[in-house]
Amino acid sequence: MTAAIKIAPSILSADFGALAREVADATEASADYIHVDVMDGHFVPNLTIGPVVLEAVRRATALPLDVHLMISTPARYVEAFAAAGADIIGIHVEADPDASSTLTRIRQLGKRASITLSPETSTEAIEPLLDSVDQVLVMSVNPGFGGQKFLPQAYGKIERLRKIVDARGLPIEIEVDGGISEANAREVASAGADVLVAGAAIFGHPDLRARIELLRKAASAGKAAAAAAPRHA
Known about the structure:
Layout: E1 6-9, H1 19-28, E2 34-39, H2 51-60, E3 65-70, H3 78-84, E4 88-92, H4 99-108, E5 112-117, E6 135-139, H5 154-168, E7 173-177, H6 185-191, E8 195-198, H7 208-228
Parallel strand pairs: 1-8, 2-3, 3-4, 4-5, 5-6, 6-7, 7-8
Helix pairs in contact: 1-2, 2-3, 6-7
């Protein structure tokens, strides 16, 4: 519970007409990851980017690229995104009936594997997969669009995952994506998150460094408070 909080600006909220500059600015502003949302218009109703755009993002930063595949049958595309420069590749458990094999393939490609839970999916759906992943992504909004409000039911899910991961001694990051802001960053980290994905709370503001540090400070306080709290059986 004492690891440093990581902030992952989501380019879904960036200016795509100046994407390389936006990514470079976030890098200079002390971001830890660059979060890339890939949507196919099928698993979710929106369309975003593919491997060619990811290659351009890769050229704009040396930070780890955290690629969230909101797509059907993701196994078809993990190799393309790996080749384009992804460092972390996440798939939805709801989108892949053979998620275990896909996660294994991601690791075989030398990438970190992530499994994602939509808001309506319980933690039980991914518990058998935890030995196959490096990260769990908890969606705190419905996947498919940016700028949504945080769903409070995510707190319980984060807490349950934190207990499971710690009890099993697994080196897994818990990442949370959706509606993250300075108003809830402390509580999200206190619940057990390690990585906060934020789009509108960072991009579009004149001082990206200040925005990132505001989130990091609030989240770090929450994580410290949780670490200091007495543990109950």
